[in-house]
Amino acid sequence: MIESDVDLSARNTLRLTARASRYVAVHDPAELSGLCADPELAALPWHVLGGGSNLVLPDVVDGLTLQVEIKGRRLVGEDEHAVYVAAGGGEPWHDFVMWTLAQGWGGLENLALIPGCVGAAPVQNIGAYGVEVKDTLFELSAYRLDGGAKRVFSSADCRFAYRDSVFKQEEAGRWLIAEVVFRLPKRPDLHTNYGDIDAELVNAGLPRTPAGVAQAVINVRQRKLPDPAVIGNAGSFFKNPVVPAAQRDALVAQHPQLVSYLMPGEHYKLAAGWLIEQAGWKGRRLGPVGMYEKQALVLVNHGGAQRADVAALTAAVQADVMARFGVQIEPEPVWW
Ligand code: EPU
pLDDT grade, residue 294 (50/70/90)? Predict the structure, then answer.
């Protein structure tokens, strides 16, 4: 059923004030062909909404907003080394991760407590604590928004990179991701040496198992990151910028405390949270929005914000980081 003028403020985790001109919930990919066959709808711009956790919405979303409600999770195959597990695009990501762990399948534990849904995870190649969704994604099924044709994308087809995929590049806005299949190793390697995970395992007395690591990740995230149910946010709002080694070395000479990580190919990833904090924005507000007091990389909505408020703060933070460090930082969320 297609609805008109639907309030989206509770359907985006930044809680921006926004309304959808037309809105429809999709529970089954088969419903898409019906929508595609309607010439009046087909003439509109379409937007696919998942958990709304990586989005900056305009005050009015023109055209048709499709809310993905495709559910289901199941074992689809198994070999000597791995299980293959499928999940509907509309499954809440964290619930799916916890379900795989309850079945005894590791591999997704570092990605616990990331907001959003399964279908959105590959779009920006979600990642945390040294693991990205690309590490276990086997393939996904997607449907073209124009015409409804189905296509299976292998992991290579997705062209994953840091917080990036083909769905943010040349295929942006063209597909509804209906189902994702993960290949979860039967003997997963634990990744615990990134950030505070090793320390948390020891301090909280957690076992060195996938479920133990998931709990450590949950504890660390709950301490550092604001809960979108309490204060509107979209997780990390800026990407960590990647710069040539020479530029990083020059910056370290001026700022010995600079936090950076070596990347392949003579490049370094800089901690944008550190740059933003040094530029004076940690805990500082501009209108109804601000950078979070405990993690400067997270933009928070203190109440009643609209897209223009987010745009103003984005520009102000970018300008100050540029003036102080000569580094351009880019927002991570998708702007509709
Ligand atoms: N830092 C500061 N000040 C701050 C924030 C961070 O100095 O206000 C410093 C920290 O002390 C640390 C470094 O910056 O030395 C990195 O901080 P942190 O480990 O918290 O990670 P991050 O780079 O800020 C990234 C991801 C997060 C992910 C964490 C943990 C991006 C854009 N963000 O954040 O992802 O949870 O690593 O792996 O890559 C998300 O994308 O929404 C997200 C939360």
Answer: very high
